[in-house]
Amino acid sequence: MPSALPDGESVPDDGVLPASALVGSAVRPLGFYVHVPYCATRCGYCDFNTYTASELRGTGGVLASRDNYADTLIDEIRLARKVLGDDPRSVQTVFVGGGTPTLLPAADLVRILGAIRDEFGLEAGAEVTTEANPDSVDPAYLATLRAGGYNRMSFGMQSARQHVLKVLDRTHTPGRPEACVGEARAEGFEHVNLDLIYGTPGESDDDWRASLDAVIGAGPDHVSAYALIVEEGTQLARRIRRGEIPMTDDDVHADRYLMADSVLSSAGFHWYEVSNWATSAEARCLHNELYWRGADWWGAGPGAHSHVGGVRWWNVKHPGAYAGRLAAGSSPGAGRELLSDEDRRVERVLLELRLIDGCPLSLLRPAGLSAAARALADGLLEPGPYAEGRAVLTLRGRLLADAVVRDLVD
Question: pLDDT (tens digit, 9 = 90+) per residue, 149-203?
């Protein structure tokens, strides 16, 4: 099961924020994340806050039902309006994730977006994304989403090889994600992402190359590629521990990353975050950039995290408990923390260093500046940006990003 949420301090029943959280808010971007925790089956590698029908049976009653979930989310969106009060900002990005959001009827996803629009307003050209499993949508579903205001789709492809999908417990057939890209384009979606995972046990170099070639052939304008992380408590971790399948090592992950960057770059994609490539600046995921640059967002749904003006909070995890709190007129918040100036500095270094623009050297303390000088000498940072006061990772630096970040935050 997913890891426990941090304790933090308690959230008031009405969800009210400290007055300091809204100081200067008018100049900060505001986004919405909407979490849909339902899945048809549980993937063996997943430790997200998700639930299958059998896992929910008897644990939340009608409150945990998919049938009325959109209404429950809309209750939290209305609570967000009350908590943010007369905050004048309209919403720049909306991202619906999960779980499998497209297990809900398309009309429900449109209603959820409509509630955000009604309560806050959407900026002109706002990016509105939903994730989707390839086997959970068809052209009619996509047409309803597009007509309802969604303009970006993100499909979980993971691999083009059946035996790799089987290890990951993915249920779609090879070729279906590529077809989804074409269907989304035909329904008017200008921006489409495909997600890939590399380093699955049993995946060969040829398998990974086939997945990359399939992505290029499908014609999305954005690709995310993540190394498989084996999380404790997952079915995949148990299978590896029992010796049923081998663990992939870091050297394989590095080789696969280099292959991805080479293939995607040759096809006209440009990296802008360590695990993300886009064909243009317009094709980047603006919602994720909002996270990476420390803007404000409200996370609606069980287990969702929010951040406004240095206050971070998280909702109760179980859909039944989440719905019960909202039905009682209370905030679903389970805990929160007020970030100190040092907390926010560290987070900026951690996140911004992963971006193509890097992070300002002015964020670093003396030990971090010394580490940056060593990283430059070791070929981990780009010399041009460094001379201009920014730490930007080289390709080799991206391979060692976690280690570089740990040194620079000191």
Answer: 999 999 999 999 999 999 888 889 999 999 999 999 999 999 999 999 999 999 9
Strand partners, 314: 305, 335
Coil/strand/helix, residue 13: coil
pTM for the structure as a whole: 0.93
396 φ/ψ angles, rounded to the nearest 5 degrees: -65, -35
How is the chain split among helix, strand and coil, in percent rounded to 5?
45, 20, 35
Q: What are phi and psi of 98, to 5 degrees?
A: -165, -150
What letter does residue 44 receive in the DSSP assignment? Answer: T
Cα(92)–Cα(123) distance, rounded to whole angstroms?
5
Phi, psi of 228 (to 5 degrees): -65, 125
Structure tokens at 261: 């960057």
Question: What's 348's DSSP letter?
Answer: H
Strands 276-278 vs 222-227: parallel, antiparallel or unpaired: antiparallel
* Cα–Cα distance for residue pair 394/267, rounded to 1 Å: 20
Alpha-carbon distance of 109 to 36, in angstroms, equals 10
334 burial via Cβ count (<10 Å: 0-12, 13-18, 19+): buried
